[in-house]
Write a structure and sequence with these properties.
- This protein is 53% helix and 7% strand.
- By secondary structure, the chain is an alpha/beta fold.
- Strands 3-2-1-4-5-6-7 form a seven-stranded mixed β-sheet, sandwiched between helices. Strands 9-8-10 form a three-stranded antiparallel β-sheet.
- Strand 2 (33-36), helix 2 and strand 3 (63-65) form a beta-alpha-beta unit.
- The protein is globular and about 80 Å long.
- The termini are far apart.
């Protein structure tokens, strides 16, 4: 019979990459963890790593491997706190039902840390009410983030958050409160005890997973923007992967400083062990996706909130998978031949492209924040955008130094309707837009696809245009479907309709 104790602070179910590393992060920070996985080997691997790293820890803690859900429940002090790190969808409900059968109680808290669709989270909070408190917390940062400090986006019952908060604040990534720069932790036992924690209570049920979904949509756009810059420098400027890696490395020292630019530089400079060619040239150009970017694009369409750069990033991945069709069409469709550039011209394009990438990055973040604002209004969430920008400064995949500027913009104007309205960003976009246009034009004239850089520029131009051609569009709608229109010389909201007869059109021609 397993030994029974009431001294464990938290239970973790699911010891895959994320679950195991979150659990180890918790014990590093002084919490006693009881862990369970259907695969007993994963439990043994977790305990083995716990033992190996024991000497490096500052705290005297315990980690217990459990043989069953019943065993795990017996080890936890009440009210019980259990973290789920299992695949999104049916597995979450499967574990919840199993926990109910194993004796979970109404005051206990179950935290879903998977990549669940936010609407599923809303439904689960309703479904399990009275049986236990279903809470959720999205996690960003991948394997390393989970181990040494992720960005955590919790939402749900506020009383449950009070129970979860001390643990989340301890294990999350930290940033310097003055500079906004990440305070790195790279090994077990190395605890960052000062700085701002990259976690905050996001809001009611589903809010955290919605914010993480938008985070992932921005991530899709950010990655594609960087890839387009690489494509322009490679095809348009004839630069090698190593040379482009060095350019990215330099960009990462300035306003483009970010995790994604940093790792892109590393990827481009990596040699293939087999051929000694740049490894990136040996990787098949077919991109995968897990669906969160698509969810963001779909949500933007449902809410009527423009997020074209995010949508184009999703489409770009879809186009990349159609490799055989692209190979066939590459011999049938004419393009534009590139010409050799002088060193001076090449450097000019590099400088313009740096500005274009920065501006497009601002545009993609602006789309994400406006989408969150519209969703919050519809769902009744009170999202604090300064806090969201703050927790994204470290731990997560889209962490970037300019998130400090976004934080400050929302701190200065909490009701900011759009990021472009912030004086700092409006000034930068206005000053850099010519470079943005030049870089985009260079790509178009050389037949290099830039769906995200181009769509971000169109987004910028659309919002700076007082008048758009939607007047003609609304005329078309009234013509074929009697959908009505408003007039610029009449009160707002008043609808008009014209009987579009041939006679009336003839009179207009006269």
């Amino acid at each position: 019979m397993p030994e029974k104790t009431q001294q464990m602070d938290i239970g973790v179910i699911g010891l895959g990459v994320m679950g195991k590393n979150l659990a180890l992060n918790m014990v590093d920070n002084g919490f006693n963890v009881a862990a369970y996985d259907l695969d007993a080997l994963k439990v043994r691997q977790f305990l083995s790593q716990f033992d190996t790293e024991a000497d490096s820890r500052k705290h005297s803690v315990r980690a217990l491997g459990c043989e069953s859900l019943n065993h795990l429940i017996e080890q936890l002090s009440s009210p019980k706190l259990i973290v789920l790190s299992v695949p999104a969808g049916a597995p979450v409900d499967g574990v919840c039902h199993a926990l109910i059968e194993a004796g979970i109680e109404s005051e206990d808290i179950i935290v879903d840390t998977g990549n669940s669709l936010w609407t599923d989270t809303v439904e689960r909070e309703k479904r399990y009410k009275g049986q236990f408190t279903f809470f959720s917390s999205a996690v960003s940062g991948g394997e390393t983030g989970a181990r040494f400090g992720p960005c955590l986006m919790p939402s749900g019952d506020e009383k449950a958050w009070q129970r979860v908060a001390p643990i989340w604040q301890a294990i999350s990534a930290k940033v310097d409160s003055e500079t906004g720069l990440p305070l790195e932790r790279t090994s077990a036992g190395e605890i960052v005890e000062t700085g701002d924690s990259c976690t905050t209570y996001i809001g009611g049920a589903g809010a955290g997973h919605y914010v993480k979904m938008v985070h992932n949509g921005i991530e899709y756009a950010d990655m594609q923007l960087i890839c387009e810059a690489y494509h322009i420098l490679s095809k348009g400027c004839g630069m090698s992967a190593t040379e482009i890696g060095k350019v990215f490395e330099k960009w990462n020292q300035g306003r483009l400083n970010s995790y994604l630019v940093e790792i892109s530089a590393d990827v481009l400079k990596q040699a293939d062990p087999e051929t000694q060619r740049p490894l990136v040239e040996m990787i098949l150009d077919k991109a995968g996706q897990k669906g969160t970017g698509l969810w963001t694009a779909v949500s933007s369409l449902q809410l009527g909130c423009p997020a074209p750069t995010i949508a184009e990033a999703v489409s770009a991945r879809a186009i990349s998978t159609q490799k055989s069709l692209r190979v066939s069409l590459s011999t049938k469709l004419a393009g534009q031949d590139t010409t050799e550039l002088s060193l001076e011209s090449k450097q000019q394009i590099i400088n313009q492209l740096e500005s274009a990438l920065y501006c497009a990055k601002i545009a993609s973040y602006a789309q994400g924040f406006q989408l969150m604002a519209m969703a919050a209004k519809e769902q009744g969430w009170r999202l604090e955008f300064a806090e969201i920008a703050k927790i994204w400064r470290a731990g997560c995949i889209i962490r970037a130094s300019f998130l400090q500027s976004i934080t400050e913009a929302y701190q200065q104007q909490g009701d900011l309707a759009h990021l472009f309205l912030a004086d700092s960003f409006a000034k930068q976009l206005s000053e850099l837009q010519t470079d943005w246009r030049q870089a985009t034009s260079f790509a178009v004239l050389n037949g290099i696809p830039t769906p995200c850089i181009s769509s971000a520029l169109a987004y910028y131009d659309s919002f700076r245009s007082e008048t758009l051609p939607a007047n003609l569009l609304q005329g078309q709608r009234d013509y074929f479907g009697a959908h009505t229109y408003e007039r610029i010389d009449k009160e707002a909201g008043k609808k008009f309709h014209l009987e579009w007869s041939s006679q009336s059109r003839e009179q207009l021609e006269l």
